[in-house]
Write a structure and sequence with these properties.
Layout: H1 8-11, H2 15-24, E1 28-34, H3 41-49, E2 56-62, H4 69-79, E3 83-87, H5 93-103, E4 108-111, H6 122-133, E5 137-146, E6 150-151, E7 160-164, H7 166-175, H8 182-185, E8 197-200, H9 201-206, H10 220-231, E9 234-246, H11 260-277, H12 285-304, H13 310-321, H14 324-332, H15 340-350, H16 354-371
Parallel strand pairs: 1-2, 1-4, 2-3, 5-9
Antiparallel strand pairs: 4-8, 5-6, 5-8, 7-9
Helix pairs in contact: 7-10, 11-12, 12-13
Length: 375
């Protein structure tokens, strides 16, 4: 389906001028940071080139990749004028996205990680919603997949949530980190990933919104989207699946590394300071605490199912729990509003019942394998 631009500037031009603008300025700039992904990069780029919506440019940002990814980027740029390449010194995902933003000229920008790929109508669906609602940001949903061919649920024709007004958008900003009370937060909660979203480029430029480094902040996407919500006039959330996310057990937040929780706790404290800076009441700290609990829940799941020795697993869990930040959570976090299973896990962890927690996690994982769960 051909989609007509609704930019107020374009609509004010003569027909001849509009044709020239449409030729020179793409509707969407797709920014793809590239690092060590030669096994997946072609699937990623091809999924954009085959979109039902073809008014786009692709910016491949080669972050000094040590494999053959840079050569693959050059091959695509040589074969399609919509594709360009930037080679830069390695700086990480966040800064690679910023490099792409500096080069982008589209009305909207879309961030795509180079080991993931898009459904054929992803850009068309997001662009249509952005134009229809005049949104600064439109989020879609992502699903997860592992090879060979196992996917979590895909949604088509889902509902659309439109969030406007200062109070609603500030509530939405908090919900990127966690939901403290689902009945209260769900109307304002949107997808936290910077992927699966379309951003108005002029809005980002006007508000000087850029990514921090994931080497400093373990979840830079949430901070970026938090800042967007504080500045936006309208944000949309589509329930349609617009992004296929590859489950990678070696990613930073999934691998059971000894320093991950230390970084998470440091991040949560910084987020609490950010809330205070932006005028949120002290109770907003619950959202940072909720993020800490979701991360520790994920980490002890990965640790308990890893090849680490049983003694090593117990030692790791106890050392994490002994951090004083969890004592503070125990005193202040409204755990009574947690989903039932999360509440059980929370109480076992907080009371240091690590053996029981370990057995429960193994049981949960076995059930998930039998049901084909992907997460």
């Amino acid at each position: 389906m051909a989609l007509r631009r609704c930019d107020a500037y374009v609509s004010s031009l003569t027909e001849q001028q509009e044709v020239q603008v449409n030729r020179n300025i793409p509707a969407v700039s797709v920014i793809i940071p590239v690092y060590n992904v030669e096994a997946y990069l072609e699937q990623c780029v091809d999924s954009v080139l085959s979109q039902s919506f073809d008014d786009f440019e692709i910016i491949l940002v080669d972050d000094e990749s040590p494999d053959g990814s840079g050569e693959i980027c050059e091959r695509y740029a040589a074969s399609d004028t919509r594709v360009s390449v930037v080679h830069k010194k390695n700086g990480g995902l966040g800064y690679a996205r910023n490099t792409g933003l500096e080069k982008a000229v589209g009305r909207y920008v879309f961030f795509l990680d180079s080991d993931d790929y898009l459904p054929a109508d992803a850009l068309e669906r997001l662009y249509a919603l952005a134009v229809a609602h005049g949104a600064d940001v439109v989020h879609g949903r992502l699903n997860r997949f592992v090879q060979p061919g196992r996917f979590s649920a895909t949604v088509r024709g889902g509902d659309v949530k439109v969030i406007r007004g200062r109070d609603a958008l500030r509530h939405s900003a908090l919900c990127y980190f966690s939901m403290v009370d689902e009945s209260r937060d769900i109307p304002y909660a949107v997808e936290g990933s910077a992927c699966a979203a379309l951003y108005d480029r002029a809005f980002l430029k006007r508000n000087r919104l850029r990514f921090l480094s994931e080497r400093d902040y373990i979840s830079e996407d949430y901070i970026f989207n938090y800042e967007c919500s504080l500045k936006a006039a309208c944000i949309c959330q589509s329930e349609d699946t617009v992004y296929h996310y590859r489950v990678n057990p070696q990613s930073l937040t999934r691998a059971p590394k000894s320093d991950v929780m230390r970084r998470v706790i440091s991040y949560c404290k910084a987020v609490e300071d950010m809330f205070a800076r932006d005028g949120f009441p002290p109770g907003a700290a619950y959202y940072a605490m909720g993020y800490a609990m979701s991360r520790v829940r994920a980490q002890y799941k990965y640790m308990f199912t890893s090849d680490t020795s049983f003694a090593g697993k117990m030692e790791w869990a106890r050392s994490v729990r002994n951090d004083s930040y969890f004592d503070r959570i125990l005193r202040n976090y409204p755990s009574g509003k947690m989903p039932r299973l999360h509440k059980i896990n929370y109480r076992l962890f907080m009371r240091r019942r690590m053996l029981i927690l370990y057995m429960l996690i193994l049981l949960q994982q076995r059930i998930r394998r039998l049901t084909g769960y992907i997460g």
